[in-house]
Design a protein that fits this description.
single chain, about 230 residues, three-stranded antiparallel beta sheet, rod-shaped
């Protein structure tokens, strides 16, 4: 043993090798654990974040929905207005077209009225002349009747005047005359026949209107004495 010790003293390299061969002592103390986040808290944070995102999304959807509803309402209102305007336009166009059809020939018929007047004058004058050929008068009367029938197809009708109360809407008074047969302001004679077209005045009748008979002097005296 002493020899070995002496050898190590003499050989220091051998001593170092022996130290290296010694097993190092192990540290059995537990290592310090690293601090980690609590998984429950992490989950709660995620849930809160998700709930916040859901709420924000719902708010955005609510705003978009309200804007969409407002836009839909405005569009419906515009559509209703346009539809009403279009319906009014169709009705107005229909009325205008109907009026155009009713009175499209008004100018032509007005030009034909003097022809009818002349035919009637010829018929009236022939009644006082015994020398006139009856066949000619009959022919003229047939022509007049055919024209009046054609007028009726376009809604043209003569105005009945004689014996009717004076109406300024259809009669044109030329003069007044006393009459015992008619009450005051009554049409007694017709100088020119008037016509209506689809119940609208085409030409007024030229007429003579009755007036109250003036009292003579004797009647005035009698009324004064009473």
């Amino acid at each position: 043993m002493t020899e070995n010790k002496d050898m190590t003293k003499d050989h220091p390299e051998t001593e170092e090798l022996d130290k290296e061969r010694e097993i190092p002592e192990t540290d059995d103390s537990p290592e310090e654990e690293t601090e980690t986040d609590d998984p429950v808290k992490e989950l709660e944070k995620k849930v809160e974040s998700a709930e916040q995102e859901i709420k924000e999304t719902q708010d955005r959807l609510s705003r978009v929905s309200a804007e969409a509803e407002q836009e839909i309402k405005e569009t419906q209102d515009r559509l209703l207005r346009v539809s009403a305007e279009f319906e009014n336009y169709k009705k107005r166009s229909a009325r205008e077209m109907e009026g155009f059809k009713k009175f499209a020939n008004e100018s032509l018929i007005k030009e034909m009225l003097p022809v009818v007047d002349n035919l009637e004058r010829a018929i009236d004058s022939s009644g006082n002349d015994n020398d006139n050929d009856g066949s000619i008068v009959e022919g003229v009367n047939m022509i007049r009747s055919d024209i009046l029938k054609a007028f009726e197809k376009f809604g043209v009708k003569p105005i009945v005047s004689v014996g009717e109360p004076f109406d300024p809407g259809f009669h044109e008074a030329v003069m007044q005359e006393e009459s015992e047969e008619h009450s005051e302001n009554t049409v007694t004679k017709e100088l020119q026949k008037g016509y209506t077209m689809n119940e609208r005045l085409l030409r007024p009748s030229m007429v003579i209107v009755s007036k109250a008979k003036a009292k003579d002097e004797s009647e005035e005296k009698e009324s004064g004495n009473t």
